[in-house]
Amino acid sequence: MLSTTRQTPRQKRVSSLATARRDALVLAILIAAVVLLIWNGSLFFHEIQFVGDQQGEGVRVAWTALTLNVALILFGWRRYVDLQHESELRADSDARAIVMATTDPMTGLLNRKGFADKACELSSDGSSGERRLAIFSVQLNRFKGINDRFGFDVGDELLRRIAEGIIGVVDPDALVARLSGDEFAVACVQSSGDKREIERLGVSVLRSVTRAQTVDGKVIQVGAYVGIAMSDGGTIPIADLLRRADIALDRAKTAKAARPMWFDTGMERALLAHSEIEQGILLALEHKQFEPFFEPQVDLQTGAIVGFEVLARWRHPISGIISPDSFISVAEDMGVIGRLSEQVMHAAFSEAASWDPAIKISVNISPVQLTDPWLAEKIVRVLAETGFPATRLVVEITESSLFADIDQARAIVTSLKNQGIRLALDDFGTGFSSLSHLRTLPFDVIKIDRSFVATIDRDRESAAIVGAVATLATAIGVPVTVEGIEDAATHAAVLGMGCAVGQGWYFGKPMTAHQAAQLLRDRHSAPHPGNELPRFKAVG
Predict the structure, then answer these.
(1) I want to staple 394 with a disulfide (CB 3.0 to 4.6 A). Which of 148, 310, 422, 436 is the partner?
(2) Around Cβ 512, how many Cβ atoms within 10 Å?
(3) Helix H or strand E encompassing 233
């Protein structure tokens, strides 16, 4: 690894110029002193030769001048030695300051600044011909757990071992840095530009980082992800190259890749698109562009509309209606899903407050929202602001969201139930402890996941699962809602299984509040006799 104490070319030029000026000044003083000494010496001998003892006063003056000149030479020499010593001390201090500014004190590796500075020098070496500069971005996985379980001393020692391991597998001229707590970086120049060779080096780095270590008698092993970016032969700023490696690293983390991930331009485009969505979401929240769409829920025996599920849509001023698949996960990552949900609920409750009192309105709760201890209070506040009765509201909670904190989920569910709000267990059957949830949490409705319904008319296993859930629900007195009924065959299959309510595009696509209100008015004005199932116009 390159020495972290080496001065940059500019620092070298400044230091050399200062040294040259100092030496020139001292040399000028010495030359002047010698010239004066020679001149005064000539005067002295002249006095001795031509004046003799009769001019004793002149002799004394000459001796005095000669003594002063010798003293001046000695003073100049002494000052030269002092200046030399001060220069060495200053140079040593500057070197230590450079080391402190560019080196990670724990591992002895370069820090972020030192890595950027020295990578610029490598970049100039790898910007011509077949030589390419490659940067590896490395991040440990589950490292925080090491500090939590074993203490920071063990964690620090593990970091030092990992640093030594990385140095051991890279070339001596490569740069190795610790950028932050659990992030490392490697920069090296590859002579042939062979991506396979660079990837092999990335694999070696990954193996060295994830190798089990024995620290303080404890065997410790962490995971890691690696992203790789390589220059294309032109001049690329080091900051941009490191950013590309970080983008590849993030993709590796998302994909949980066990091998190094190469950067490609598609990743950058996706990141820019993600950033644009983030900015758009913030603007949409400010301008109330998120609005509710309503998907009908139908009594499977009578065909009557018994409720609507509220689905969020983004009415973008340029792109039009945007589906939730494009923005819900981004809003969750941004931490604004609660604000978005409240905005949609507020609009939905305001619209539905004047509808038939028998119509239920169902809203989905994100798993992220379920981590908010004030969720129940926020929903109750929206109900109070809109005048929507709590007894007409059904809150749908996905089964997978209950695993994060079952105690908090139970507290939220209990608070909602105390307000008269009904609860539905959404995506039933996709979790790991469905029956225990039915036993410990007071759900009023079970919603069977659409993945079981999609193949119910041709898959015996799916039909058996739906039938078993319907039988179980009947036994415990909880009605079943079936999602994903898209055609007549699926409707006929679930109709004979005892399921209470169905929803899907067979009954109507998600629609605006105005379209839902019109649908309800049409149903009241033209009732269907007996058990004949009405066909609703697909809207939206």
Answers:
(1) 422
(2) 18
(3) none
Cα–Cα distance, 59 to 52 (Å, whole number): 8
pLDDT in tens, 16-75: 555 666 666 656 666 666 665 565 555 555 555 544 444 555 556 656 666 766 676 677
C-alpha 43/C-alpha 30 separation (Å) is: 20
For domain 112-263, which architecture applies?
Answer: 2-Layer Sandwich (3.30)
* 8 Å CB contact between 426 and 447: yes
**Cα(342)–Cα(167) distance, rounded to whole angstroms?**
52
For residue 425, the 8-state DSSP code is: E
Query: Where are the chain's structural domains?
Result: 9-102, 112-263, 274-525
Query: Residue 349 and residue 292: Cα distance in Å, rounded?
Result: 9
3-state secondary structure of 73: helix
Fold designation for 274-525: TIM Barrel (3.20.20)
Q: Which helix (DSSP H) or strand (DSSP E) does residue 140 occupy? A: strand 132-141
Contacts of 426 (CB under 8 A, 6+ apart): 364, 396, 397, 398, 399, 447, 449
Q: Round to whole Å and give the CA distance between 416 and 375.
A: 9
How far is it, in rounded angstroms, from Cα 45 to Cα 65?
12
Rounded distance, CA 453 to CA 482, Å?
7
In the structure encoding, which two tokens stand for residue 28, read together? 């000028």
What 3-state DSSP class applies to 455? coil
Query: End-to-end alpha-carbon separation of the chain, Å?
Result: 62
Measured distance CA(447)–CA(500) in Å, rounded:
10
> To which H or E segment does residue 489 belong?
helix 488-495
